[in-house]
Specification:
- 34% of the residues are buried.
- The chain has a 3-stranded antiparallel sheet, covered by helices on one side.
- The protein has 293 residues and is α+β, with helices and mostly antiparallel strands.
- Helix 1 crosses helix 2 and helix 4 crosses helix 5.
Length: 293
Amino acid sequence: MWKYTPKVMDHFLNPRNVGEIENADAVAEVGNITCGDALKIYLKLDDSGKICDVKFKTFGCASAIASSSALTEIVMGKTLEEAAKITNKDIVDLLGELPEEKMHCSVMGMEALQAAIANYKKNRGEEYQEIASEDDHEGRIVCKCFGVTDTKIRKVALENNLHTVEQITDYTKAGGACSMCLDQIQEILDSIWREQSAQQTKNETSKDDAFAALSVVKKVLRVQEVIDKEIRPALEKDGGSIELIDIEGNNVKVMLKGRCASCPNAKLTLKKLVQSKLNEFVSDRLTVLEVQQ
């Protein structure tokens, strides 16, 4: 028995905006009844380009109905540009929570909305590239049981920070039937996060090199900016403060003031707050040293 939040039960038992819209400006259908879930969504726009009416018809479980209902409330009154930014996370946030095994229902809602926007643009001869449902028809079919492509797996994994095959199954159903594609899903996940790790390393190196190329004056200004915006406000909440004294190579010399100067956890503050923030926003090569008053 699934454990549903009160909001999920409300949207399931009292779904909003169920039905069809005659002469709708956009219509889209995703999913497959034979696979267990399907959703059809209708959009109507007013003269200002905002969604003034939305209806849906769905075949699926309580989570599918609740996710579809929640989606209609989220999109009402939004422009297509605003609606295009809605993700499955927004649907889950409105519902409070969904069982992990039912997250694919929120993904289906997001895909239906994006497909509807693509339908609207296509009917008017406009290009609309950032559509998940369009991408899903490209790439290689990984899960033949549910028709899930490697493109969809990559997109959902990146958007929701998914690292395990079980999570992919929860969010897309891929691998949830015959299990023949589980190894392929794992290979895709390994590839995704290897690429992300390599890109992060590249970005960090570029950040470090960019700071190293600055003049001394610009280095001081950059460090001072981070201290003023990211570090000092946190210290002032506890009655403390900080002053930048000097920069020598990769060593940043600072002086703690106020209550921080006599705090027994001063070394921890320097490491966990000051140096951490400077490493994050300026350069990983920086080391913070304390200058006593």
